[in-house]
Amino acid sequence: MERIVIEGTPKTPTISFDMASGQLEIRGRSIPENSIEFYKPLVEHLEKYAQKPQSNTNVNIQLEYFNTSSSKCILDVFKKLEAIHKGGSAIVINWFYEQDDEDMLEAGEDYQAIINVPFKMVEVAE
Amino acid sequence: MLSFKGDITSELLTSILQIMESKLDTMQEEPKIKKKVYNVLVECLQNLYHHMDEIPRSLNGSSSGIDGENIRSAIFMIGKLDNQYNIITGNYILTQNVEGLKRRLDEINKLTKEELKDYYKAVLNNGEMSDKGGGGLGMIDIARKTGQKLNYHFMPVDEVYSFFSLNIKIAQ
């Protein structure tokens, strides 16, 4: 099982996905003009992972900013995770938001309402 | 604080965002407000980037350049007045698209905070995606984050083009 790491830029987050340990992390800001192109490799790796997932998959999402162009792609990532969860891998999505960042907390709750995977809202200090 | 007129490219967008981020830092703005302003700014600029229509050069009042060649031009301004941030954008659109856009904006303006949240989730989850990935969430997001009605204006320019302006306020 491989591991992918995409280094962050001022407009895109750092993504690391270790398929051997079932650990996925998206961290930073996600404001590219073309999000589909950016998220494509991750979505493809999730499809591959879905064929033989670990018994536990841990997901950490720690975004500072994300644009609406990214929001549909993030939903796509979560839908892949939902399918993996349904297939028997226990998944938890940890959604990090900075203290007082109500918009980011609400964004996490929006996904929580749509996606059938346990979410954990984690407040972090500014 | 900053104003601009011309074509909105991906590189320009990156520069404006970097400048604005450091300005907001210098002003020691509350993190909560800083994030809101930055987020709304991203949506406004990317709206311009994705949606502004090309216009004939003559329409822009520019005599230089090649006749008959089309150009992309938009205006953008951000300022702070009485503890309130103002973002103004303006771009040309085809008059035939005015009705559709106006209807969408009025639709958004009719909704309460809770309805906006539900509408956002519905559009997010409708499975439709434009080739750019936005899928019509930008204006809903701006209305949601600012908590105010979208203040817009359409001005006819000639028989083909209109000028669309949007005035967004972000209160402290």
Explain this structure to me?
The complex is a heterodimer of chains A (126) and B (172). By secondary structure, chain A is α/β, with parallel strands linked by helices. Chain A has a single domain, classed as Transcription Regulator spoIIAA, CATH 3.30.750. Helix content of chain A is 39%, strand content 34%. Chain A is built from three helices and six strands. Chain A has a six-stranded mixed sheet, with helices on one face. In chain A, α1 (35-51) packs parallel to α2 (68-86). The longest helix of chain A is centred in the middle third of the chain and has 19 residues, at 68-86. The radius of gyration of chain B is 17 Å and the shape is globular. Helix content of chain B is 41%, strand content 26%. Chain B has helices spanning 10-26, 31-51, 98-109, 113-124, 138-146, and strands at residues 2-6, 55-56, 70-71, 74-81, 84-94, 151-156, 161-171. The mean pLDDT of chain B is 89. Chain B has a five-stranded antiparallel sheet with strand order 1-4-5-7-6, with helices on one face. In chain B, strands 2-3 form a two-stranded antiparallel ribbon. Chain B has one domain: 2-Layer Sandwich (Heat Shock Protein 90), CATH 3.30.565.10. Chain B is of the alpha+beta class. Classes of the chains: A alpha/beta (126), B alpha+beta (172). Chain A binds chain B through residues 10-11, 31, 33-36, 64-65, 67-73, 75, 98, 100-104, 106, 110, 113-114, 126, and chain B through 10, 13-14, 17-18, 31-32, 35-36, 38-39, 42-43, 46, 49-50, 117, 120-121, 124-125, 129, 131-135, 137-138, 140-141, 145.
